[in-house]
Amino acid sequence: MSFKAFSEKQLDVLSWWSPKRKTSSYDGIICDGAVRSGKTLCMSVSFVSWAMFSFDGGSFAICGKTIRSVKRNVASPLLNIIRELGFRVQERLSSNIFTVYSGERKNTFYLFGGRDESSAALIQGITLCGVLFDEAALMPRSFVEQALARCSVEGSKLWFNCNPEYPQHWFCREWIKKTKEKNIYYIHFVMEDNPSLSKKMLDRYKKLYSGSFYDRFVLGKWTASEGLVYPFMSDDKMLFDIPDGDAEEYVISCDYGTVNPSSFGLWALFDGHWYRISEYYYSSKKEGMSRTDEEHYQGLCELAGERDISKIIVDPSAASFIEVIRRHGKYKVVPAKNTVLDGIRQTSTALKDGSVRICRCCGDSIREFGLYRWESGGNDRPVKENDHSMDDIRYFVSTVLNNSDGGFFVFAAQR
C-alpha cells in the first residue's frame, strides 16, 4: 500500500501519545469532522503503534457499529498496513481477535460491534489497556461507557473518531463539549486534511450533500437538521421524463398503511439509473373508505402490469401485507431496511448523484418532497406527516442501492 505525505493533522494523530510530546499527558483523543478526511486510517495505525510501544501482553478493543463494519472499515486496511510497517499478525477471525507481535512483545486486539443497548453485555468482564471507537456517535451510550469502564490498566488511553450528528447528541454533550474536563486531546478534521483526495474528488463529495448533511459531512459541524429534508428537490432539474424502451429491471417499493396512506413506487433501471416511472398512492382519509390487504394487492398488480418484477420491497412492519403477497406466489417479497437517518442520507446522496431519478408523472412523490420536513427542537427526526412516498423511496434506496450487509470479508495470512 502506498501513501501520500500525511497532512499536519494526520501526523498529529500519529504521534500525540509519544512521551516526547506534551500531548502525551492526555487520557485520550477525539477526532471528529468531515467524511473522507483521513481520520480512521491514521488513528487505527496510531492506536496499534501506541499499544505496541506502551504495553506487552495487554488486551485492547477496537469497536465499530457492527462487527462487519469494524472489520471492513478498520481491521482490513489496518492489518495490511501494520504488516508493511514490520509487525507480525496472527488472526483468529472466528473469535474476532488478532494478535500483533513486535520482537518479544505481543498484544491482543478484540473486535466488538456496538449496534444497540444489548451490545454492552458483550464487552463486560474484559480488562483493557485501551479502546478505539470507530464512529463513536453511532454507538449507544451504554456500550461506550461499558467499554470505557473496562480500561482500568495504568497508562490506558481512550480513542474516539466520528462524523458529527446533531448538537444534542449524547456524545457531543458529554465528550466534544467536555474535552478539557475529561482531559481529552481534540482534533477537528475537514476534507482538505486528507491529502489523498484530489480537487476533483473534493468537489464531487461537496456536490453530493446539501442542508444539514453538507454541514456535517463536508464542513464537519455538529448541526441541527432544519427545514425540508430534501430541499434540492424543489429544483425542476431534479425531475425527469420516462426513458424510452424496455428497462433492464423492475422493482416495486411499498409503504403500507391502513389508516395512513399507502404508497407504492414502480422503479425501472435504465443505463445504471433507477427511475421512479409510476406510483400507487391511496389515502383512506381522502377517499373516505379504507382498503383491505387484498385490495391493496390488486393495486400493486395494476401498478406492475405485465412487467417482470424482480422483487417487491415492503415496509417490514407490514406483516399482513407481506403475507398476502407471499400467499399469491406471483412476486418475490423482501422486507425493507428501515434505518431512518441512514436511509435519508443514502436517499439524499442517490438523488443528487442521479442513481435514483424521479419522473414528472409521480405527482404524490413530488408533492411530499415539498412538504417533508425535520422536526423543530434540534433532534434528528422528520415530522411524521407527508412521509409515505418518502418512506417507500427510502426503503428502495436502503434495500436495493445500499444492500451491503450481504457481503463478506477476507483476511489472507502469510505462511
Layout: helices, strands, pairs:
Elements: H1 8-15, E1 28-33, H2 39-54, E2 59-64, H3 67-84, E3 88-92, E4 97-102, E5 105-113, E6 130-134, H4 141-149, E7 157-162, H5 170-174, E8 184-189, H6 199-208, H7 211-217, E9 239-240, E10 249-255, E11 262-270, E12 273-282, H8 284-287, H9 293-304, E13 309-314, H10 319-328, E14 333-335, H11 340-353, E15 356-359, H12 363-369, H13 388-401
Parallel strand pairs: 1-7, 1-8, 2-5, 2-6, 6-7, 9-15, 10-13, 12-15, 13-14
Antiparallel strand pairs: 3-4, 4-5, 10-11, 11-12
Helix pairs in contact: 1-2, 2-3, 9-10, 11-13
Give a quick precis of the structure.
The protein is of the alpha/beta class and 415 residues long. 32% of the residues lie in helices and 22% in strands. The two termini are 20 Å apart.
Protein described:
The chain has helices spanning 8-15, 39-54, 67-84, 141-149, 170-174, 199-208, 211-217, 284-287, 293-304, 319-328, 340-353, 363-369, 388-401, and strands at residues 28-33, 59-64, 88-92, 97-102, 105-113, 130-134, 157-162, 184-189, 239-240, 249-255, 262-270, 273-282, 309-314, 333-335, 356-359. The model is unreliable at 405-415 (pLDDT under 50). By secondary structure, it is of the alpha/beta class. The longest helix is centred in the N-terminal third of the chain and has 18 residues, at 67-84. 32% of the residues lie in helices and 22% in strands. The strands form 2 sheets. Strands 3-4-5-2-6-7-1-8 form an 8-stranded mixed β-sheet, with helices on both faces. It has a 7-stranded mixed β-sheet with strand order 9-15-12-11-10-13-14, with helices on both faces.
